[in-house]
Amino acid sequence: PDLTLCPFPLLLLLPLHSRIHHTEKGSPQEDEVGEEEDTIDMTTRILSTNNGSNENLLEGDLLAPRTRNKANGVVTIPYVVSYHFSQYEKNMITTAMKAFESRTCIRFKERPWEYDHNSIENKQGCFSALGRARGKQVLSLNKQGCLYHGIIIHELNHALGFLHKQTRSDHDSYVRINWQYINPQNAYNFYKQTTNNLNTPYDYSSIMHYGKTAFSMNMKETITPSPTPTYRSVRRRACSPGTSIGSTCSTDVNNKVSYYLSIRRH
After folding, report:
1. DSSP state of 245
2. Which parts of 142-220 are beta strand (E)?
3. Half-sphere exposure of 50 (CA within 13 A, CB side)
4. pLDDT in tens, 150-181
5. Residue 75 CB neighbour total at 10 angstroms
6. Rounded to the nearest 5 degrees, what angle is found at the Cα of 132, between the Cα atoms of 255 and 2?
7. Residue 252 CB coordination number (10 Å)
8. Spatial distance between the Cα atoms of 21 and 54, rounded to a whole number of angstroms
9. What is the predicted pLDDT for the residue at 252?
10. With contact defined as beta carbons under 8 Å apart, do 163 and 193 qualify?
């Protein structure tokens, strides 16, 4: 069945978790900016790029909120891309946006004149505010470390209100957090959050899931998957944005469909 939804008002603010289709290599071209090596974990790349950032970041790439989120999100997401990005780099960003649009009712529109909008900028790191905020909402994609298809989608997910997968309220049933390998100052990044999981399965391959050594003091595993029937791998798996829904991609679409339908019923 076709899981694409028709447009209707949305609340893009609840702390949910999801994954959008992504490839391990950059798009639209693979031999220039955006090529991802299979040996480099996406979370490691984000945390490494953010190491020199002077922003107050939560969970490694969430910009600490300065104002309270407003529960009036809509299907159309206004945005503006900084002039610091080349046309090729802008195309990479819009290609990631189209991955959302191909299977959901989210529509990204370049509207710099709107008061509430996402401002995609070349700052020191890969990070975004969580959910919708009033006025200009910064989403940083550093040109040197963040212009990868998966990372762009990861940060767009944060802007839409989705937290990291391993902070789900039911994570104890699916992963073990190895606190002994985590610096106490970074322990908060693994705390459970109060989330509406919409009866969706825990997806180890989610693009919103930390890598197994995230925030490790000694490169030992900080996240160990529990041997559940749904276990595949903590590491993200490739799924091209234009392909049909497959076994490694359907969870993301189902999450968003369930989310939108739950909002529509209220």
Report:
1. P
2. 175-177
3. 25
4. 899 889 988 888 888 888 899 998 999 999 99
5. 17
6. 30
7. 29
8. 30
9. 52
10. yes
Domains plus CATH for the chain? 41-162 (3.40.390.10), 165-236 (3.40.390.10)
Q: Could you tell me if 16 and 232 are in contact, meaning their C-beta atoms sit under 8 angstroms apart?
A: no
Report if pTM > 0.70: no
Which residues carry out catalysis? 155
Q: Which two tokens stand for residue 107?
A: 């529509």
Find out whether 84 and 143 touch, Cβ atoms under 8 Å.
yes
Is omega for the bond preceding 28 within 30 degrees of 0, making it cis?
A: yes
pLDDT at 146 over 50: yes
Question: How confident is the model over 213-261, as pLDDT tens digits?
Answer: 999 999 999 999 887 655 544 444 444 443 322 233 445 555 555 554 4
Give the whole-angstrom CA distance, residue 124 versus residue 264.
Answer: 38
Give the end-to-end CA distance of the chain in Å, rounded to a whole number. Answer: 24
Q: Rounded to whole angstroms, how far apart are CA atoms 18 and 252?
A: 5
The two structure tokens encoding residue 263: 């909002």
pLDDT for 134:
83
What is the amino acid identity at position 107? R
Q: Are 155 and 127 in contact (CB under 8 A)?
A: yes
pLDDT at residue 109, as a whole number? 92
For 38, other C-beta atoms within 10 Å of its C-beta total 9
Half-sphere exposure of 155 (CA within 13 A, CB side): 33
Residue 164 assigned to a binding site = yes
- Say if residues 206 and 252 touch (Cβ distance below 8 Å): yes
